[in-house]
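To make this tangible, this section ends with a sequence with its structure tokens:
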Amino acid sequence: MIWLAIVVALGSVTIGVLVAQLLRRIPRIGVQVALLAFLSVCVPLAAVLLSGWVMFHMGADLKILAVAAASALGAVVAGLLIARSIAGTLDGLGHAAGAIAAGDLSARAPESGTGELHAVAEAFNTMAASVEQLFDARRELVSWASHDLRTPLASLRALVEAAEDGLLEPAEYLPSLREQAETLTMLVDDLFELAQIDAGVLTLEVRDILLADVVSSTLRLLGPEAAARRVALVSDVEPGTAVLAAPEKIERVLANLIANALRHTPADGSVAVRVEQLPRDVHVHVEDSGSGLGDGAPQRMFDRFWRADRARSGSGAGLGLAIARGLVEAHGGRIWAENRAQGGARVSFSLPR
């Protein structure tokens, strides 16, 4: 009896494995599930029938066949219903993927089904939204870059044509040529730095630095512009405050934030740089006494080329704050913006101590 049980068990396992391998070759998941359901009924039932026939010589063949047929039919129907549910979700994913491949980036898969299928559809839609956002950002990048490159190029062409026609003397057009060339160089450098940040290949030579030195150096650099705008520059930094960072990159971040604050601060206003020490990191705040941030600006002002908010839009290419965010995040910090309770805006970023 024991040997019979062992033989039947091994035979059932062998048949099940062989048939399962054959099922994997079937291209349709619905057929696979239906045949799997049929197999799950037939193999145990066959083992029971074989054991009964050997041990008791069963004679109720018709009843046994009826039970076997009914069980197999029920298993096949259940398998088909399950397969239909699975295949429906997969078909939705397939149609959405095909639409995205054809260029319709707004296509989404129906988030039907339960458990893993719903999770897969939800993850697919999240990925599709990210892809759509990436392509929108790329289109916006090309559009704004073309716009900002066109202006200095048009000026350069006009100056060259005027020089060729003899309408300008070298002393008259050379300063303008240099100015437009510097504008183009700055824009190309900004785009290159953004490309490095996006690709994750930005090199940072970090070391312990004193923030007071970086802040004072940046304020000296922007002092003439502040004086021309009649805006006071103020700093509040404890002398011994140190962070782990690349000094030239942090100076670039501060310069971008202060320059942005100066553009939106009226005459006789002020821009202040304040440093707050916390247990794990240091927060650097750039505060201005301007009109503050408009609706949606705190969430989008660090996007490249974003100028939708009139109160904070400037004459630059719109890359300074995007570069500042990339440099801060490359240091392991974060950057954010908010309105001050007493008026004006505050842009802050964190650095590891």
Q: What stands out?
A: The mean pLDDT is 76.
